[in-house]
UniProtKB/TrEMBL annotation:
<protein>
    <recommendedName>
        <fullName>Small ribosomal subunit protein mS23</fullName>
    </recommendedName>
</protein>
<keyword id="KW-0687">Ribonucleoprotein</keyword>
<dbReference type="Pfam" id="PF10484">
    <property type="entry name" value="MRP-S23"/>
</dbReference>
<feature type="domain" description="Small ribosomal subunit protein mS23 conserved">
    <location>
        <begin position="2"/>
        <end position="127"/>
    </location>
</feature>
<comment type="similarity">
    <text>Belongs to the mitochondrion-specific ribosomal protein mS23 family.</text>
</comment>
<dbReference type="InterPro" id="IPR059242">
    <property type="entry name" value="mS23_dom"/>
</dbReference>
<dbReference type="InterPro" id="IPR023611">
    <property type="entry name" value="mS23_dom_met"/>
</dbReference>
<dbReference type="GO" id="GO:0006412">
    <property type="term" value="P:translation"/>
</dbReference>
<dbReference type="GO" id="GO:0005739">
    <property type="term" value="C:mitochondrion"/>
</dbReference>
<dbReference type="InterPro" id="IPR019520">
    <property type="entry name" value="Ribosomal_mS23_met"/>
</dbReference>
<keyword id="KW-0689">Ribosomal protein</keyword>
<dbReference type="GO" id="GO:0005840">
    <property type="term" value="C:ribosome"/>
</dbReference>
<keyword id="KW-0496">Mitochondrion</keyword>
<dbReference type="GO" id="GO:0003735">
    <property type="term" value="F:structural constituent of ribosome"/>
</dbReference>
Amino acid sequence: MAGSRLERIGTIYSRTTGLIKSGALSWDDRPLWYDIYEAFPPQEEPRFDRPAPNIKLKKIFYKEDEIRAVFHRNNKYIGAANMFNNHYKSLTQKFIEKYHVIEDQYKGEGTKEQIYADAIESLKREKENQKEATVEEVEPISLSTAFKEAKSSQKNVQETKINLDVKNIFKD
């Protein structure tokens, strides 16, 4: 029993207890969960052959889940979201916020399809405005001016070069 890896022969707790009692596993090397399992044992032993409990699960849906589902069904290529950046809102979050704002403007008179279409249009307009703002910030430079700037910066770098003697670099 101690060398068994099969879930059919005892539980993981009983096999670990057997390993500790036989000396194959020292008390100091016991798993982290072992003490918790002993302090708070389950009401029924978790065995592979125990039938699943007949518990009715509640379906939990939030108000925006339906909106999110429709948005993702109609827009397959949304892009990746950076989960590490809490200050950045994903496209889905922005859409849901727009949807709620437009829904409040309609005051219950518009259909879901109208609100959805208006929210999509609002997002598109916002994206176009952002593109225009970034384009306006960059000053157009002619090609000859860009070449002249690159040439002058290259000359500055060449003037500041230091002559190094590789053979005598460590002789100081």
